[in-house]
Amino acid sequence: FGKQPWWKDALFYQVYPASFKDSNGDGWGDLPGLISKIDYLEELGVDVVWVSPIFESPQKDMGYDVSDYQKIYAPYGTVEDVDTLLEECHKRGMKVILDLVVNHTSVEHEWFKESRSSKDNPKRDWYIWKPARYDHNGKKRHPPTNWRGYFAGPTWTWDEQTQEYYLHLYAPDQPDLNWDNAECREAIYEKTMRFWLDRGVDGFRIDTVNKYSKRTDFVDAPITDHTSPHQPAPEMWCNGPRIHEFIHEMNRNILAPYNAVSVGELSLTPHPHQVIPYVSAQAQELDMVFEFSVIRLGNGNGFGAKYIYDPFPLSTLKRLTAKWQSFIEGTDAWATAFCENHDNGRAVSRFGDASTPELWSRSAKTIALWQATMTGTLFLYQGQEIGMTNMPPSWGVEEYKDIESSNFYAEAVQSGDGERVRKTIDGLRILARDHARIPFQWSDEPNAGFSDAGAKPWMRVHDDYVAINAAKQRHDPDSILSFYKHVLKLRKRYKDVFVFGAHKLLDPDDEEVWAYVKESPCPVNGRDGMPRKALVMMNFSRSERDVGDIANALGCKEGDVHLLVGTADSLDSDRTTASKGGPWPGLA
Ligand code: TEU
């Protein structure tokens, strides 16, 4: 299957730096702390470390509000610490990508300070300014449109000094850059990307990559939420008229010359037809994208109800994944395999059952097998490999620090609707971004070994850190961490099947066992040069299911497949099943 770029079968690992490792006891994770854990990442089999934003920032949105792209937020360390991180990773054959946040800056960024200083400032047009609208009697001032942003508020904020509104899809502290301005785009390429590529960074995870081109008619969105003055309007700014021109320009000007790897965050983009133009080889735009159909499962419909949890049957997951897989097979385009990140609840709490230690362990291993056998480039999120779980339901809302959580909660309280408040709290307990941001659980030492014993971590350490931590699992052959290492090796060893293989979902109506066949795209030296196949079976239920029965029911006769993997008996036995015949050794 020919020469593939290095990143297609690489293992990426997302580090949320504030919560990974604190080296100086200030309760906030930092770069020296991350550097002290590179051996841990290497041992897991990580090829590429993705570091969420570490730049100078007022931290209104945990660094996704950058005030200086060439400085490091002091509690994380210094630019020289980044040089050390690069050096330490590169000497181990590992790479580093940074989080590129260029849909917006912080209000504290010099560019915005100039832009807001006067209407005729040369950088005025680097942001999106619009005059107010007034009632017919000219009394009441209104924003240019009725759009609702991602953090439960309007997308416009009035600026007294120049008497205009500016656009922000996220917090008022995150004004949107105007990508329609060529000078602004040039500055983004030169001042945020080239600076880090020249220092040796290997590429970028590109934040909100489909939002840079907005519709320029700025019209009101239809009223769909009668409880709010602001209406969801992602169609006004997702996949806009010039988006492919901009991303292609970014590719030609900066990504390609540096051979930088790129993965774009592409939410709310109908796939496959609207995703392919971002990632097809001939597009010369991005290498990969994150497609969110699967990870969004359970989110309430639309912006207004995001945190009104919408329970889903497993079959939804399977149907979505089948569709997702078909889009990958349909082209040489590449999506990514992932089930966690810093914007979502923990997978074992959402897609598994963490209610008892036994079920928690089996669930986490089943999820590990799911991820390790998925087609595409695999991304893990810190803590997923040891089965870190959502915050305990007993914790109060004060433990939810994230702007998105607190804004949705405040909006529910302001609505005066007790039922909505209750549902929002229930939704946050499953879906909140905060669950992924509590300190990494390294050991059973105080503060879970994340920070010094006397320190007060910026977020509360999980109550279960004594039972769930990396040190406890590292040498335990039955641990989740050991299982991840096991199935990650399986993925690498049979990458033609698991990374590059076609995916055939077997029984979309079975609500308990999720089974699919993966087939290598090319004849290998297996039996008679036939493509290699694997039957993957995962029992997401508590009932006993027999491997043989399933295989037969699925029409997979013995010898049909060369590798049988799965936690198919039930969540109560994580035995992985040896292969049945075929040229391959069973799962060791
Ligand atoms: O998220 C982009 C985005 O679409 C968010 O709405 C995200 O999907 C949502 O919060 C999920 O609950 C990126 C970053 O990943 C996120 O952390 C930032 O808050 C956001 O952009 C603004 O930079």
Bound molecules: 1-O-alpha-D-glucopyranosyl-D-fructose
Secondary-structure-based class equals: alpha/beta
End-to-end gap: 26 Å
* Dominant shape: globular
Spatial order of the strands forming the largest sheet: 15-14-12-5-2-1-17-16
Low-confidence stretches are 568-588
How many DSSP helices? 16
Write structural notes for this entry:
Residues 14-429 form the Glycosyl hydrolase family 13 catalytic domain. Its EC number is 3.2.1.20. This protein is of the alpha/beta class and 588 residues long. Helices cover 27% and strands 15% of the residues. The protein is built from 16 helices and 21 strands. It has helices at residues 31-35, 38-44, 79-91, 110-117, 182-198, 243-255, 276-279, 314-329, 347-350, 357-372, 403-414, 418-431, 470-474, 480-493, 495-498, 547-553, and strands at residues 11-15, 48-51, 55-56, 68-72, 95-100, 129-130, 133-134, 141-142, 147-148, 156-159, 164-167, 203-206, 231-232, 261-266, 288-291, 336-337, 377-381, 502-505, 513-523, 531-539, 563-567. Strands 15-14-12-5-2-1-17-16 form an eight-stranded parallel sheet, with helices on one face. Helix 5 packs parallel to helix 6 (243-255) and helix 11 (403-414) runs antiparallel to helix 12. The radius of gyration is 24 Å and the shape is globular. Residues 61, 64, 101, 150, 170, 207-208, 265, 267, 342-343, 404, 433 line the site of 1-O-alpha-D-glucopyranosyl-D-fructose. The site of 1-O-alpha-D-glucopyranosyl-D-fructose has 13 residues, from loops.
